[in-house]
Structures are given as C-alpha cells and as structure tokens.
Design brief:
CATH topology: Cytochrome p450
Helix content: 55-70%
Distance between the termini: 45 Å
Radius of gyration: 22 Å
Shape: globular
Oligomer: single chain
Protein name: Cytochrome P450
Strand order of the largest sheet: 1-2-7-4
GO molecular function: heme binding; iron ion binding; monooxygenase activity; oxidoreductase activity, acting on paired donors, with incorporation or reduction of molecular oxygen
Main location: membrane
Number of domains: 1
Largest sheet: 4 strands, mixed
Number of strands: 11
Bound molecules: protoporphyrin IX containing FE
CATH superfamily: Cytochrome P450
Binding site for heme: 400
InterPro entries: Cyt_P450, Cyt_P450_CS, Cyt_P450_E_grp-I, Cyt_P450_sf, Cytochrome_P450_Monooxygen
C-alpha cells in the first residue's frame, strides 16, 4: 500500500496521513481507534483512542520502555541513547540533558549562527534564485551539530554524514520486511552486506576523532572537553563509581546516533517550515515583521529568540502537519491492566503522531489546513483536554532530549533567512511526503529566493 501510495505525487494538501501511512489509515477506518497487528512474531498495538492513550501515557513503566530495535535500525542508529535501557540509558540521558538544556544551550548559539552565516554566504555567492532547501538544510544542521557535539567542522564530519545518509534508504527498504527471527544473522542479503560496509566505514571515521580528543584531554590541550558531548562522554567513561561504565563502542554508538538525530530531524523541520511559508506567504510576512521588530538586522540573541511568538506558532503548526518523527513507540515489559484491556509483556505500542495530529475529532474540521493561530495560546492549552494530541517530540521520560535545541536552531536559521530573503514556491516543486525513517519530501523542496 505504501509503494502504491507513494508511486505518484499528491496535490498540495496538508492531509498527508493517508498518503504516508495508508496501511494504518485503512486499518483505523476498518477496525476502529485501536488496532492490534503482528509484524512477523512481534505483536504491536496501535493506539489513537484518547482515553486509552491517556492511560498508557500515565503508566511510568510503559513510558520508559522502548521496543527492541530491529537489527537494521540498530545498525543505523547504533546502540545510542534513543534505544538504550536501564542504567545505560539513565547515564546517557543525564549527559545529553546537560548538553542540550539550560545554560549549556546558550553556548550553542554562536556555533548555530556561524553555521547559518556560512549557508547564507554560499547562497549569496552562488547567486541563483532557485534552491533545493532540503539539501541546504542538511548541510547547515550537520555543520552545527558537528561543532556543538564534537568541536569538529562539517568538512570533517562529511564522510560520516554521507555514509549515514546512504544507510537511510537501505533501512527504509527493510522497514516492513519480516524475517524469521535469527535468520538475518546467518543469511545476509545485499542490503545487509551494504549496510555492514557503511557501518564499518563510519566506525573508521569516528575512531580517529575519539583518539585525537583523548590525546588532547590527557595532554591538557582540550578547552571544550568539559562542555561538548564527546568531551562529556569521555569524561564519564573514566568515572569509576558510575552504575554503568561506558565502553569505547558505547561512545562510538552515541556519536553516530547523535550525528543522525541531531541534524536529520532539524533539517526536515526547517524544510517543511520553509515550504509552509512559501505557500502561505501571509505567514511569511508576519514572521518577517516579528523578526525585524525583535532583531532588526542584527543576528539573533538568546533573549530575542524567546520573544519570537509567531515563529513558535508557525513551527508548532508545521510540526503538527509534518512531524519529522511520525510515531512514538513503547514496549510493555510486565503485564499491565488498563481499563478492560490486559497488555501482555513484550507487546509493542505505537502512538501514530501523524494520525493524531491530523484527526478532525481533535483539531476540528479545519484539521488539514495550515493555521498557526491555533497555537496562539500555547501547546499546554491544546493538550490539556487531549493528552497525546500533539507529540512531535514524544512524551514522558523519553521525550526528545534535543527538543529545545532543535527549536532554537530552527528559529535562528529561519530568522536569518527572513531578514535577507522573500521566498516563494518554485513551479518545479512536486509534493510527495514519504516516510524514510523520518517524514521527508521525496523529491526535495525547490524554493525561489529574492534578496531583500
Ligand atoms: C525537529 C527536530 C526533532 C524532532 C521532531 C525530534 C523528535 C523526536 C522524537 C519523536 C523522539 C522520541 C521520543 C519518545 O519516544 O517519546 C525523539 C527522541 C530523541 N531525540 Fe529528538 N527530535 C528532534 C531533534 C533532536 C535533536 C536536535 C537531538 C539532539 C541533538 C535529538 C535527540 C534525541 C534523542 C537522543 C532522543 C532519545 C531520547 C530518549 O530515548 O531518552 N532530537 N526525538
């Protein structure tokens, strides 16, 4: 059904759920709001009923539990924080929270601004009016995450990114392929072999970065080892009292997984927001006016970023209609009774954010329209009557650790673009959102830029 639905583009409509997840859309229509299905031997409950959703979200053990990672995803994301459990997760989470929140977050501003300035300079030098923005945003977000996490530049990280990007279509091909458990370890198909080659290549690029940092730290030649994420990971490895001790493999996995989650998602968010503003130009004008009021022609400051309220509304509305992560998943570890349901251990749970974000019963008859004004009173106002209605960053203890950083990065990039350009949709754009791990534009997003 997915192959068929994505074999042709769609009109420019924001009702993307039936196109991107036609199987779930049709099951919800046939079987109701909660569906149990099997992917091979693995049972999964898809939940969209608000009452059950609320109950599930209130059970802490379920909120903590992540499904076992399919072999192919494990290869792609490594065993990083997004998939780890128990003491290892707690330790990784604490370090990442420290890096991407509070005061530390302010330290990320200069690197973000610098990355965006480089992109804008490239645009100016190239002089062409039409740009494919998804590719552009992939570069800028890669640049930023390389600097913030590892103190390295995009050029250094480029080879890793290219290999990581090459892994995504391989994973997408295998996402819905079911195999007899264990067979994948013995019989490898061409996708497995290609994946292994790329994974080994990534490891070969990351190891020298770690070794170089270790040498600098030991020789006292490292000034940001205390603040960036790689520095924190290496420091934590030497903590002998810790309940979980990081191995070098853990650090490689964590680097890889942050390379992916740290830029793949933000670049997509920026792409969809740019598309929205190119189509809904009245909101582009409102956003530009706000940016000019707050910053004039100056670069964004952390105090000013918090005052960009219209931009918040635009970003939230885009995350609602085009959430980069289209589902949140959980695993039941011990038998749990919820209402008249008994959830057995090992059951996976999927909360399909895209479906919930586009549900008329929750958002009203205009659910499929781009209307940022619905967020004018903030997110809390929306979710208070509908828990689970808005989940672009997931929920509970495993909510996205980089959410604040992502929003700030997106606001900086958008503000700096709006200060310099007015933009509109190119006639070459073809609307084709697809799930390739994240929700992406299948043929990119072509935008016409006009310097102000
Ligand atoms: C627009 C940008 C982003 C979106 C839409 C997004 C979305 C998500 C979602 C849906 C989850 C799953 C949460 C859950 O299961 O409840 C998640 C987890 C996570 N995200 Fe993000 N993310 C974004 C940006 C980032 C960035 C920039 C970083 C890092 C710098 C990051 C790091 C992570 C990590 C490490 C986890 C796993 C957290 C855990 O399991 O404890 N994300 N993200």
């Amino acid at each position: 059904m997915i192959t068929e639905a994505t074999s042709f583009p769609m009109d420019i409509s924001h009702y993307t759920f039936p196109k991107v997840q036609p199987h779930i859309d049709s099951w919800l229509r046939i079987y109701g709001k909660n569906i149990l299905y099997w992917q091979g031997p693995q049972a999964e409950l898809i939940v969209t009923e608000p009452k059950l959703l609320k109950e599930i979200m209130s059970v802490r053990e379920i909120s903590m539990g992540k499904p076992d990672v399919p072999l192919i995803s494990n290869k792609i994301f490594g065993g990083g924080l997004a998939f780890s459990q128990g003491d290892k997760w707690a330790k990784q989470r604490k370090l990442a929270t420290h890096t991407f929140n509070g005061e530390q977050l302010k330290n990320t501003l200069p690197a973000t601004i610098e990355g965006v300035e480089m992109m804008l300079k490239r645009w100016k030098d190239a002089g062409t009016k039409e740009k494919e923005v998804y590719e552009e945003f992939l570069i800028v977000t890669s640049e930023v995450i390389s600097r913030i996490m590892f103190g390295s530049s995009y050029e250094e990280g480029k080879k890793i990114f290219q290999k990581q990007e090459a892994l995504i279509p391989l994973a997408a091909k295998k996402l819905y392929k079911t195999r007899i458990p264990g067979l994948g370890m013995i019989f490898k198909d061409k996708y497995d072999l290609e994946t292994e080659k790329l994974v080994d290549g990534i490891r070969d690029h990351i190891m020298p970065m770690i070794r170089e940092r270790e040498t600098k730290t030991t020789s006292g030649d490292e000034d940001n080892s205390k603040t960036d994420y790689l520095g924190l990971l290496l420091k934590a490895r030497d903590d002998i009292d810790a309940s979980y001790k990081f191995s070098i493999q853990d650090i490689i996995d964590e680097c890889r997984s942050f390379y992916i989650v740290g830029h793949g998602t933000v670049s997509i968010l920026l792409t969809w927001v740019t598309l929205m503003l190119a189509i809904h130009t009245e909101w582009q004008e409102k956003a530009r006016e706000e940016v000019q009021q707050v910053f004039g022609n100056q670069n964004p400051s952390s105090e000013g970023i918090a005052r960009l309220k219209k931009m918040d509304m635009i970003i939230n509305e885009t995350l609602r209609l085009y959430p980069p992560g289209i589902s949140t998943t959980r695993k039941v570890h011990k038998e749990t009774r919820l209402g008249n349901l008994v959830l057995p251990p090992n059951l996976n749970i999927q909360i399909p954010a895209l479906a919930l974000h586009q549900e008329r019963e929750i958002w009203g008859e205009d659910a499929h329209l781009f209307k940022p004004e619905r967020f004018s009173k903030g997110i809390a106002n929306i979710v208070k009557n509908n828990p689970g209605a808005f989940l672009p960053f997931g929920y509970g203890p495993r909510i996205c650790v980089g959410a604040n950083f992502a929003i700030i990065e997106a606001k900086i990039a958008l503000a700096m673009i709006l200060q310099r350009y007015r933009f509109s949709l190119s006639p070459n754009y073809v609307h084709a959102p697809v799930q390739r791990i994240t929700l992406r534009p299948n043929f990119g997003v072509q935008i016409m830029f006009q310097a102000l």
